[in-house]
Amino acid sequence: MTRKLLILSLALAPLALSAQTIYKCTDAGGGVLISNSRVNKNCQAIVSEERNSLPAPRSAPRAAGNPTPAGFPRVQEDTQKARDGDRRLILEQELAGEQRKLDQARKELAEQEAIRTGNPAERTAPYRDRVAQHERNLQAIQKELGGLR
Asked: What count of Cα atoms within 13 Å lies in the side-chain half-sphere of residue 63?
């Protein structure tokens, strides 16, 4: 019965948002019904608001994105291009370093997989985790590089 009440409440939520009167009614067997009309004398209003007959005020049109405040210091275009170039260079260096680490981690994993003693799943798990971490790092750096101007 609680599940039915929840489903009815969710179904009637848009009605509540439109500010109609919503009633909670109890029948003779103790069942609960949520309705937008009074079903019997055992109904109690749980949401009752008047509808607003005035339209919502119009908001001022927004500028695309986040506008820069008037007193905010500006960076010269050539300075920004130099910074973007430096950022790209740093990211490319990180990408190359991460690729080397991934290659090394794969090599170590292959060496561990070649060993046939003990429990291979337990022994290789940290090596697999390291390979996966370097792969995620590479994807993140590539995504960052893809987002540069």
From this structure: 5
